Amino acid sequence: MDNDEEKLQGLQEDDLLEESEVDTMMRQIISQTVGDKQLDHNSIDQWTTEIIEGCLKRLTAFGKPFKFIVVCNVSQKVLSAGSVCSLSLELQTCLCKPGT
Q1: What are the residues whose beta carbons fall under 8 Å from the beta carbon of 7, sequence distance 6 or more?
Q2: Residue 36: how many CB atoms within 10 A of its CB?
Q3: Which pLDDT belongs to residue 35?
């Protein structure tokens, strides 16, 4: 049994998050916040806050038994990577899934 499978023991199928659903949600929030706006260094703090708060609000709305960690970095490049970490205090487990 690999390490991820061991961490998932004790969770029900309904407890898990669908990676594609989370990825789509994150991309929607980023698109709504930044859209096709030019990089504006004066707006980065506001964008970062809106993206983090939007992701946390939507992740919490899934109603899953996790605490979430959201990190946001704004750069001039197109979004090329992201990740989601889920923390289950009950199982003392932290699962991190890299995005694309």
Answers
A1: 91, 93, 95
A2: 5
A3: 85
Specify the CATH number for the domain of residue 68: 3.30.1140.40
CB atoms within 10 A of CB 19: 13
Phi/psi at 95 (nearest 5 deg)?
A: -110, 125
The conformation of residue 65, written as its DSSP 8-state character, comes to S
Q: Which residues pair with 88 in a beta bridge?
A: 93
Q: What is the pLDDT of residues 51-83, one digit of tens each?
A: 999 989 998 898 877 778 888 877 776 554 555
Q: Is residue 73 part of a domain?
A: yes
Q: What angle do CA 7, 11, 15 make, to 5 degrees?
A: 120
Residues 6-22, mean pLDDT to the nearest whole number: 68
The contacts found for 12-15 with CB under 8 angstroms, 24 or more apart, are 15/64, 15/65
**The predicted structure's pLDDT at residue 53:** 92
Cβ distance 72 to 90 under 8 Å?
A: no
Say if 11 falls within a structural domain: no
